[in-house]
Amino acid sequence: MRTAESVLAAAHPGAPRPWGRWGLRATAISYLALIIVLPLSAIVATGFRDGLRAFWNDITNPTAFAAFRLTLTVAVLTTVINAVMGTLTAYALVRYSFPGRRLLNGLIDIPFAIPTLVTGVMLVVLYGPQEALGAWLQARGIQVIFATPGIVLALLLVTYPFVIRAVQPVLLEMQKDQEEAAYTLGASKWVTFYRIILPTIAPGIITGVLLTFARALGEFGSIVVVAGNIPGRTLTAPVHVFGQIESQNPRGASALSILLLALSFGLMLAVDSLERLRGGHDAAR
Amino acid sequence: MPHAEARQAKPRGPLEWLLIGVVVFYAAVLLVGPLAAIFWGSLSHGLGVFWRAISVPNARSALWLTLLLGASATVINTVFGVVVAWVLVRDEFRGRKLVNGLIDLPFAVSPVIAGLMLILLFGRNGWLTPVAEALGVKLVFSLPGMLLATTFVSLPFVVREVMPVLTYAGTHQEDAACTLGASSWQTFWHVTLPTIRWGLLYGISLTLARALGEFGAVLVVSAGVSGLTETATLFIYRSLDDRNQVAAYSMAMVLALISFTILLLMELFKRRADEQ
Questions:
Q1: pTM for the model
Q2: Are residues A58 and A43 part of one domain?
Q3: Both A136 and A42 in a single domain?
């Protein structure tokens, strides 16, 4: 006797039997619910547990607000520099052959692999006030470690690959003929770049920029050793959240977390819809 | 990207050389400088000092714990990652898009916030503390909590690397195997798995790299007892606090070397995946 189930199974023979399919689906969903949805709800509930007014006070108290403002500032700065340098680097790597091109291309992914705390340690070794270069710079009035430049440097290093790896595949697919046609017809190199190349690679740049920004908002490991964490001056939002956890203030920690999460999750959604528009997945690498 | 390798032109004008100069200089200052610094910082006192710094009992147990946590989180995320990827690609159900969006959340969450989540769930007065107590597990300030934190932050990689490969491969071969009488498990083991293997290995390496280097989330949920619940990154952090630069730099060097190794493996897997 053929049951409805066996008919279904015969229609899609590659799929597991319905009970297996249900089991897999249930496993996947409950795993994600347990490890993502539940923790997220806990943060939202804790942040708002004493009402909206308390939440508002938590995120507008001077230290928290200054931390959030600093995080936004350095994130924007990092994103702008990364957008320009990332695009130039991707362009040079795709279009020109030069000595060391392969080596450079291989080096780009290093920040993905290296622990961010180690990145911070590297910067301290290089620019720390007790080290040769750091002392030399300090004698000339430039302080990198325990100051804002160190934070930006750490963020630039940690987010270095994002724009490059998002722009590279787009540039590779782009037809070079257009570029050459424009150039042959008398357009200057700058006009060619501005009119032909930039519009084509813009979606790649935007993807990379959003990933950079989201990452810069949440970065902790490299910043905590580089920044010095002086409240009101070099204390970033994630480090402030850490401080609130340490001083047994889960509500305050949650409130600032909600703010950061809303910002970066909104950005991730933006990236996602952008990628769906383009129909690619390479950019995430 | 083999098809693109042949297209690079020799730079012609001064503007092009300037562009290359700027790009290389930027990479040198940003990347190569710090990398060289950590080599110098950890090895300038000689190999003996480096070796002693990483072979004291606390350092060895920290490294061991990092490897243990990294390997466990990677195993968990590999198994569940393949299941989730399969369900998202092959299965149709209401809310699939939402689930798909949720996967990326750990990328958008600061590791500190990931740690905070665990404290809220399993800490004092936590939502799940009664459940955990009834089961007799202590999840915060203990190893299970650190494992949970590490698993959370490295969750998306396997899913995100396996999904495109599964989509691209389609269902023809799985259907054929099944029609020929293979069980679901045989189909998965002999048909699906070989198809996704390079993408999966790439995802596994990303997971492992991220898990071994996790710091923020683990810092929040660990009691950081030296020699017991101290990972390699926590060891570095504490050493910096104690002004024990030699220990911090040496351990950082070890983690950097492990990352390079994983990165080389990743290049290999990516090339194989592209060939496929």
A1: 0.86
A2: no
A3: no
Q: Check: CB of residue A229 under 8 Å from CB of residue A61.
A: no
Measured distance CA(A176)–CA(A164) in Å, rounded: 19
Using only C-alpha atoms, chain A has a radius of gyration, in whole angstroms, of: 24
Query: Are B213 and A254 a contacting pair at CB < 8 A?
Result: no
Domain region containing A280:
52-284
ipTM of the complex: 0.88
Q: Could you tell me the domains of chain B? A: 1-44 (no CATH), 57-275 (1.10.3720.10)
Please, is A247 exposed, middle or buried when counting C-beta atoms within 10 Å of its C-beta (0-12, 13-18, 19+)? exposed
Q: Do B83 and A220 touch (CB under 8 A)?
A: no
Amino acid at B76: I
| Tens-digit pLDDT profile for residues A11-29 | 454 455 666 778 888 888 8
CATH number of residue A230's parent domain: 1.10.3720.10
Spell out which residues of chain A touch residue B187, defining contact as CB-CB under 8 Å.
14
Residue B141 has which token pair?
């300030």
Touching A: B residues 175-204, CB under 8 Å: 175-179, 184, 187
Query: Angle at the Cα of B235 (from B231 to B241), degrees rounded to 5?
Result: 145
pLDDT per residue over B77-106, tens digit each? 999 999 999 888 888 888 788 888 788 888
